[in-house]
Design brief:
alpha+beta, about 525 residues, globular, single chain, binds adenosine-5'-triphosphate, 3-stranded antiparallel sheet, 8 strands
């Protein structure tokens, strides 16, 4: 088992991310983060090898400082010149920012409906708006900013971004083209398609490409691509960067920033429960992302869950897969009967989506990360139904630390079905996730679960095995009021004690993220 770096002794002087935690952060025990890697030795699902992707790039984006082997010079902590680690994704964004500058004189209204731009790096975002959310960039900026101002100038920023959108490179070419992408390996699969790590040979960097099967008329596919262009305008350190989209046969290909630690779903399933302090930072990042989408673009995410929250080994946490394209949602809904088990009671009952529905889904996701299991489970016979044990590629007994929590609330039939390895066929996966039920044996399970969500008390952040900080318990409870009117708003949640009093630094998050990525 690889040893992971414990927290650097400079943790207290490195960037402080938390809102209101601009003061020196207390050193965090290395057991919380640096050595958080579970003792479970578990093979990754087939095709999920994200461990060596970005950290040690072998090729650098052109025009950026390199030590000759593609690795940007850094000190022992991966900090560059006292600033933050520069991942390939960051380097790409730098390059794209340069391209965008140099393409300002280029006429981008060539009638090409799919012209692309890439999001600025958080660094650039920060420079353009010092009051924006900046938790990933405080190393560079030398201090943290208040969350209460996180979206105060978002409108202005959105306008600025719009002006900058739809750029091509200086030669007038789309910045990301399907033919420039070489497949490296699969990253995972969802209900709608598969995600692959790709090498962009033209841009010299790695990216993630999501292929979504859209069995629709070409005109509908074109409309989907048009709608996806709104992602072009998103520019937030809490939203996974969007690089472009194009039609691929009956698929729509979407190219996005590679998050080399994977989804929070992958992370807890491979490493066990996420340390509660990190869960707090996940909450903070998701809330910032939700507020950005809503305040700047009037978008409600609609699908917050651990597999849509991604992390990278720079310690950044971002959300992806928001409901930007109504046509895409419709097309996928026609293909897959999708019902999310993270859905709020009011949504299950047919009320329209509001940002409070996303808050509910966040609450459920936070419990799942902190307990290392989906919150709705059985309170009997569950030792034999441990999700960890059930993974077919488990190498060792996970041990008592990962037994199902006895505080579960639902009959066995409604337990969250186990995920198959990543290479499982789409059909099997849909069935096993229990969200696509047509003709499957899980129909009653999901209906029972939905009924339970509507009729029974909301889950709580409690466990007989662990004691969670009261601030965290209260926060989660505030997310899970069944009446959306009572549920706390994202803005108020960001001002809550758990978020404001967090001592976790960017450096801590980076140490934690690195510890979750196995070296094999
Ligand atoms: N940008 C990314 N970088 C790295 N891995 C990614 C990225 N996007 C997705 N993945 C991986 O691919 C998996 C599948 O993602 P996808 O969005 O297709 O489905 P999902 O969110 O897991 O499930 P669903 O279809 O139910 O929403 C994720 O769980 C994650 O492991």
């Amino acid at each position: 088992m690889a040893e992971y770096p414990s927290l650097p002794s400079t943790a207290s002087t490195s960037s402080s991310i938390a809102a209101g935690s601009g003061s020196a952060s207390a050193p965090v025990s290395s057991t919380s983060f640096g050595t958080a890697k579970s003792s479970i030795s578990r093979k990754k699902p087939l095709g999920l090898d994200i461990s060596k992707s970005i950290l040690k790039p072998t090729r650098a984006a052109p025009g950026l400082p390199s030590n000759g082997n593609g690795i940007t010079p850094k000190d022992g902590n991966g900090i560059i010149g006292g600033g933050g680690f520069v991942s390939e994704a960051d380097m790409l964004r730098e390059e794209i920012a340069n391209l965008q500058l140099s393409s300002k004189s280029t006429n981008s209204s060539s009638g090409h409906s799919l012209s692309l731009s890439l999001p600025d790096s958080p660094i650039n975002a920060n420079h353009s708006d010092s009051s924006s959310t900046t938790n990933t960039t405080t190393n560079k900026e030398g201090g943290s900013t208040s969350t209460s101002t996180s979206t105060s100038s978002s409108k202005k920023k959105g306008d600025k971004e719009k002006k900058r959108s739809k750029h091509k490179d200086k030669d007038g070419e789309d910045l990301v083209k399907d033919e420039d992408l070489e497949i490296i390996h699969d990253l995972g699969a969802g209900n709608g398609g598969t995600v692959t790590k790709v090498w962009n040979k033209k841009r010299n960097c790695v990216m993630a490409r999501k292929l979504i099967l859209v069995d629709a008329k070409p005109s509908v596919r074109k409309q989907i691509l048009r709608e996806l262009q709104i992602m072009n305008d998103c520019n937030s350190p809490y939203i996974v960067g969007y690089y472009g989209c194009f039609p691929v046969d009956v698929h729509v290909g979407i190219v996005i920033e590679l998050m080399d630690a994977g989804s929070l779903n992958d992370i807890y399933r491979h490493n066990g429960p996420v340390p509660i302090e990190v869960v707090g930072k996940v909450a903070e990042a998701v809330l910032h992302g939700l507020m950005y989408l809503y305040d700047v673009h009037r978008i409600i995410h609609r699908d917050i869950k651990p597999s849509n929250i991604l992390a990278n080994t720079n310690g950044e946490i971002k959300i992806c897969d928001f409901g930007v394209s109504g046509e895409l949602i419709n097309s996928i809904a026609n293909t897959f009967v999708g019902t999310s088990t993270y859905m709020s009671p009011e949504r299950i009952q047919g009320a329209p989506y509001t940002i409070k529905s996303d808050v509910w889904s966040l609450g459920i996701s936070l419990i799942e990360l902190a307990l290392g299991r989906f919150p709705f489970t059985d309170n009997q016979d569950n030792e034999n139904d441990n999700e960890f044990e059930a993974l077919s590629d488990t190498e060792e007994d996970p041990g008592p630390e990962h037994d199902f929590d006895p505080d579960a609330t639902l009959p066995l039939s409604t337990q969250r079905p186990k995920l198959p390895p990543a290479d499982t066929t789409k059909k099997e996966r849909r069935k096993s996730k229990g969200v696509s039920l047509a003709g499957g044996g899980h129909t009653m399970s999901i209906l029972d679960l939905l009924q339970h969500i509507v009729n029974e008390p909301a889950p709580r952040l409690t466990s007989r095995r662990k004691t969670f900080p009261q601030e965290a318990v209260t926060f989660v409870q505030d997310c899970l009021y069944k009446d959306p009117a009572e549920r706390t708003s994202p803005q108020d949640l960001l001002a809550s004690d758990w978020i404001v009093n967090s001592k976790v630094t960017q450096s801590d998050l980076k140490t934690w993220a690195l510890s979750t990525v196995s070296e094999d």
